[in-house]
Amino acid sequence: NRALPTVTINTMPTAASFFTNATTTPFASYGANPHNKIPYSVEYNLGVEQQLSNSFVLLLDYVGSVSHDLFVNITGNTPLTPGPGSVASREPYPQYGGVFPFDLNEGFSNYNGLQAQLKKTLSHGLFFNVSYTYSKVLDVQSSAQSPGPENFYNLRQDYGPADFDRRQMLVLSGVYSLPFGRGKEYLNRAPALVEAVAGNWNLATITRLVSGAPFDGQAGSDVANVGGSNQRAERTGASPYLKGAFTAASKPWLNHAGFVVPALYTWGNENRNDLVGPPFKEVDFSVFKDIPIREQLKLQFRSEFFNVFNHSNYSNPTNTVTSSAFGLITSAAAAGRDVQFALKVMF
């Protein structure tokens, strides 16, 4: 899916460009397992549904899946173990000119979640849906473009929460038609002017509360001396978070004393994605009014407020131990309040 090469026949790379010294040593810029397997997933679920009343339904579901032979992109031809000496002198295949990206289908993942819903069908002008999910998804690499596992020879070393793991999610959505105007409980026979001002108003909301995104502390360099990247930090045993220190003016999220650069020629003991960033909280709200013109024709005026309370949602903090900004949150994950108005013709 990467389109066609841009070179034409008279601008093809020279033969010498495929060798590090133009005569003897081939240079491998990319590699892949020629016997890769086809990825597959097994999905399963079990649920119950209970009618609570004429308008309320409760659903509880266990949802799970396992996946095998997933695509993983790793830095290949690295030394078998961390240690001193040049990387080139310890490569298993020095004749290929160094380390290079390598693709193989040996990734694995699993998902387990409790999904609950409370639904109210339309009655008395109100309907809503409340959804709650408590789940966990684990893998070794979450996408082809995300940083690959730190150790080519032990994928399980990177087995941990997926980049998109969100442990808890609560979503409330609903619409309420206010009981004012013709055909409604109140002001059913109000004068035309009162009807025009007070009748046919509706309120709607989508409220989302989501756990923070996972991340980990990074060493910031090739401490293991294997020619690879994405190596993680060392935990000191101190609390990783700075509880109560986060404010609007100062945004430290992690405790710098809880992380250090690993000892030279070792892997850090930090697990992949074992930290959690700030949660996401947003309330979207809308008000809209239907204005009948004639049968099967009406205008609708809408005012919509995204993030109506202008709540600040932050990105994960800087996670490289060697950075002067380590542990600090420096950017927002979503925009502030956004308001829009619309006039629709419905027929």
Largest sheet: 11 strands, mixed
Compute the gyration radius: what is it?
28 Å
Low-confidence blocks of residues: none
Q: Helical element count?
A: 1
Structural class: mainly beta
What is the N-to-C order of secondary-structure elements (H for helix, E for strand)? EEEEEEEHEEEEEEEE
Indicate the overall shape: elongated
- Average of per-residue pLDDT values: 90
What is the first-to-last residue Cα distance?
Answer: 42 Å
What portion of residues belong to β-strands?
35-45%
According to DSSP, the number of beta strands is 15
Helix share bin: under 10%
Fold topology:
Layout: E1 31-32, E2 40-51, E3 56-76, E4 100-123, E5 126-139, E6 160-161, E7 168-177, H1 192-198, E8 201-210, E9 214-215, E10 234-235, E11 259-260, E12 275-276, E13 280-294, E14 297-306, E15 338-346
Parallel strand pairs: 1-4
Antiparallel strand pairs: 2-3, 3-4, 4-5, 5-6, 5-7, 7-8, 8-13, 9-12, 10-11, 13-14, 14-15
Could you walk me through the main structural features you see in this protein, from its secondary elements to its overall organization?
By secondary structure, the protein is mainly beta. 2% of the residues lie in helices and 39% in strands. It contains one helix and 15 strands, in the order βββββββαββββββββ. The strands form three sheets. Strands 1, 2, 3, 4, 5, 6, 7, 8, 13, 14 and 15 form an eleven-stranded mixed beta sheet that branches. It has a two-stranded antiparallel ribbon with strand order 9-12. It has a two-stranded antiparallel sheet with strand order 10-11. Strand 2 and strand 3 (56-76) form a beta hairpin. The longest helix has 7 residues, at 192-198. It is elongated, with a radius of gyration of 28 Å. The model has no long low-confidence stretch (mean pLDDT 90).
